Amino acid sequence: MNYIVIGKIINTHGIKGEVKLDPHTDDLKRYSDLNKIYIGDEKDPVEIENVRYHKNMVLLKLKEFNNINEVLFLKGEKIYIDEIDRVKLPDDKYFIYELIGCKVFDIEGKFVGDIKEILQNPSNDVYVIKDKEKEYLIPAVKEFIKEVNIIEKKVIIDTIEGMIE
């Protein structure tokens, strides 16, 4: 089974066993559609009893836990879902986990580096591309991103002068 990280438990909330989740998604309300998640590196399955939203955070009540003492150990753990439960994206849109690790080449075929991180900004995402010694920030807009091939883990970019030196 393949898993996708959709958030991280950052704290407890209240005394009845709720946890506060830092969501790793653009669609905050997508948690309402979930019945089961997997917690931590061991991917322990847990059923969701209730979902609430507060200040761009997700509050989850998990069925197995009923007080704060039972959820303290979950702090810092990542939350996963089955890959089959992921949302469907429109064409030319990609999940961050699909882009991380992609090899980046310029339009002449010269290797630039690997995508190591995606910075999410209000106007557009920015790909953080690293080679052995340098780091490049490439705006994720059609002007610069010419091709994305998730199957081959390859991205083709067209840069302007000074963007990559």
Describe the protein in words:
It is a single chain. This protein is mostly beta strands. It has two domains: 83 residues, RimM (Elongation Factor Tu (Ef-tu), domain 3), CATH 2.40.30; 62 residues, SH3 type barrels (Roll). 5% of the residues lie in helices and 47% in strands. The strands form two sheets. The chain has a six-stranded antiparallel beta barrel with strand order 1-2-5-4-3-6. Strands 10-9-8-7-12-11 form a six-stranded mixed beta sheet, with no helix packed on it. A hairpin with a 4-residue loop joins strand 1 and strand 2. The model has no long low-confidence stretch (mean pLDDT 91).
What brief labels describe this structure?
165 residues, mainly beta, SH3 type barrels, 12 strands
Rg to the nearest angstrom?
19 Å
Question: How helix-rich are the residues, as a percent range?
Answer: under 10%
> Mean of residue pLDDT?
91
Q: What is the end-to-end distance? A: 41 Å
Number of strands: 12
Q: Which structural category fits the helices and strands? A: mainly beta
CATH topology of the largest domain: Elongation Factor Tu (Ef-tu), domain 3
Q: Which descriptor suits the 3D outline?
A: elongated
Count of discrete domains? 2
Please identify, by name, the CATH architecture of the largest domain: Beta Barrel
For the biggest β-sheet, the strand order reads 1-2-5-4-3-6
Provide the low-confidence segments as ranges: none
Main sheet: strands, sense, barrel: 6 strands, antiparallel, barrel
Strand content: over 45%
Let me know the CATH homologous superfamily of the largest domain.
RimM
Order of helices and strands: EEEEEHEHEEEEEE
